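One record is kept unedited as follows:
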Amino acid sequence: MYKVYKSDKKLACITLDYEKDYGDRINEFNILDQNVELDGLVNLFKKLNIPLSLFVTTNIFEDYPSSFELAAALGDDFHSHSHTHNTFNPDAHFEINESKLTFEKYFGFVPLGYRAPQGVLRPNDLELLNKYEYKFSSSVFPSLRPGKYNNIFAPVDPVIYENGFVEMPFSVIKKIRYTYSLSYFKLMGKNLNKLLISSFGLPNIVVFDSHLHDYIYNEKSFNQLPPLLKVAFSVRKSYGKKYIVEAVKLLKHRGYEFITMTELYEEIKNS
């Protein structure tokens, strides 16, 4: 059982899933070699002057030690995004616990939040997250993705479970349940996103998702994708930096205040 948290404030969290290129589809981190573009991304977020919350796949620090320095430069707030991002044969117990241990090794504190790979959060995962003392999850897409999840009737607002654990879902455009994230923003384009949001609105709490591959195109990794994914990721593949600016402008215009995921959790907990 849970209760839905309704906020009178308009709050937005910009988040980045910090993982290898295209999750576990490539199992390489070729984007890390693009120093100029990564420096440009760091500078872009400094210019936007908004906090960025990172959900980190923790084995990236073990496989690519220099990636920790980049994460520290990009982010203001850090949480877990599993250990290996294994979506083919996941072991939830291992992913949740090992991610916590590795996260604490590098950051020096335990993560408050967890994000399941590709938004696939199973009922038993909530018990494991609570067992390993995570305080919140930001994993649920309250929408439909055939073959992955069907959360079309899930709340679009945060929920608080009886044990105090909190789920802060990804943002969707209300009524039509279209995901409001950088990947989907690029797929549909700026003008159509603006029209849909103007017509149907957003929740008062927006958790906006993005990935490094949304901002930076790497040809070597892109060419290893299956054909259908190539088609999807080829749409406006170089528009990521431009479109995050547009997405932030749109939220500012609609009166949203930008905070970290930790601050959002504290806001909900203290309510």
In short: The chain has one domain: 2-270.
